[in-house]
Amino acid sequence: MEERLAPGVAVARRRRVVGLGVLVAVLVAAGAASLAVGARALSPGEVWSGLSAAPDSDQRLTEIRLIVQTVRVPRTVLAIVAGVALGIGGALIQGCTRNPIADAGLLGVNSGASFAVVAAVSVFGFANPFQYVWFAFLGAAVAGVVVFGLASIGRGAGNPLTLALAGQGITVFLVAVTTAVALSDQKSLNALRFWNAGSVAGVGFDVIWPVTAFIAVGLVLALTTLPAINLLNLGDDVARGLGVNIALSRTVGIVAITLLAGAATAACGPIAFLGLMVAHVARYLTGPDYRWLVPYAGLLGAVVLLVCDVVGRVVTRPGELDAGVVVALLGAPFFAVLVWRGKFKSA
Amino acid sequence: MRRKPSKVDLVAGREATGRDAAGAGTGATAARLAARGVAVGYGGRMVIDDLDVAIPPGVITTIIGPNGCGKSTLLRTLSRLLRPAKGTVVLDGDDIVKLKTRDVAKKLGLLPQAPVAPDGLTVADLVARGRHPHQGWLRQWSSDDASVVERALAMTGVSDLAGRPVDALSGGQRQRVWISMTLAQGTDLLLLDEPTTYLDLAHAIDVLDLVDDLHESGRTVVMVLHDLNLATRYSDNLIVMRAGSILAQGHPRDVITAELLHEAFGLRAQVIDDPVGDRPLIVPIGRAHVRPGGPDPAASGENS
Predict the structure, then answer these.
(1) What is the pLDDT at residue A264?
(2) Is residue A148 part of a domain?
(3) Which of B119, B125, B162 is the closest to A289 by Cβ?
(4) pTM recorded for the entire structure
(5) pLDDT of amino acid B11
(6) Which helix (H) or strand (E) holds B245?
């Protein structure tokens, strides 16, 4: 159809497909770098032997195998999964709310998770991160449901502004309670400091697989809602005129965002700014069609989180900088340059 | 003095001879879209109370009336954007509230007032979105959709703009593109809420000529317009509203009188023959810049 309509349309489509391929290639390269780079740098050959080595190898190979299989592979997988989830969550919340500065934090996901971590430590005495991951996920989900519920009752029902205000209100409240508890309980404060940094390291597959399952469900829901989000961006009246069930589409979208961002945040801690940033870069690359924008945002999110995690392992050797910190440190100036050059469009 | 709404149905019946999609007889039954005893309001305050209207098929119906009289509210109720507190809107014999949003969208195209496209969205992409009601999980984009979109672009004269971003177009072009999207929806019932808002007179005429083309090709059009002379020129059926009720309905030649204009709008005006058309022309009389001696009292609305 595009060929017959206008040559420009076909060119734009081809560019988007090529761009998607480039992003996948960059993601593979970043993944390889993430397996090789670290406190002990590995050559590609060593990475490969580490991946394929059997448990009863010689001592040198066993060491490499342990590094690759129990440290590097899990954090690489988590960076990809969480990056995809946060990127898509960021694009989706902007589309659902028609708000170009929205990110998943708008739903109270981050503050809900922090609050739950503090509650898990101070009330139930869980000191192990593997235990409070699920509290964090529950906290994120409950915060999302409460914010969306508040925004859906009363006269402003379904209005994106109401959602933003409800999210802000809940966030302020949860942050206040979290701070109060953490300041009066040393164990909570330590857990919160550890969790709040936003890191993809130190989490095993016992956490990663279930988190990935939740994210996969969120991903499927997100993909089903893309055509409707395209229409919601023409305004509610136009969307309804074209047969969109607005309340249903928004609800599915918000549930998807809560699953994506909530699960990623539970596993990594809050990684601020990633969703917002990649959603805008994706929009700059693809234009406003969410069927393209969302896959781009997902791949970009994974690439950025992987690269930032790798950079974090290198810059403060022998120590490490958490990926969440690097995202903000590198992302903000990059973003500022794009803003300065006027590259961004409204949602 | 206010005429009773019951007159409305008679007028609708007269116009129904033009084109009858439902294949039914004459009168209100021929209308595919009708409101029966509807009351609509916002938060308890009723804007429209107990209103009956039937939209005659195959012609252009324009709703006019002073600001706040409920014109847009009526249009939004007819298009199911607003749910009436009382009464029903009937579309092809069904209560429109009970129909699925998507099923309504297959029968009735709607263009809200001053829609805004996201930055960077191309004309082709926007018009293609008009096909949404016909797509589903099993039935994605097809060559049928492509040819409908192509025809919609051609009919509105925007084929050459297909690859351009909507936000880079002029106001008149933009409105043609939005109408094109509504056409791509493939309905023969079109509801347009002030399609000429923000357009200069030349572009307004251009858009209304396009609307007339649509009706010539068999579509039923209902629109809200502010400009009385444009409404008179381009409509076959006028619905004149005041304070949430219908004051008069019918062909502009039968409806537009100095007396009615005064009653509906509180406007003093002379109604003369349109020098270039076969419809009346409204010449408003304000307080300033009117020739000394005043207008011909017999023709003005002063004595009503």
Answers:
(1) 93
(2) yes
(3) B125
(4) 0.85
(5) 38
(6) strand B245-250
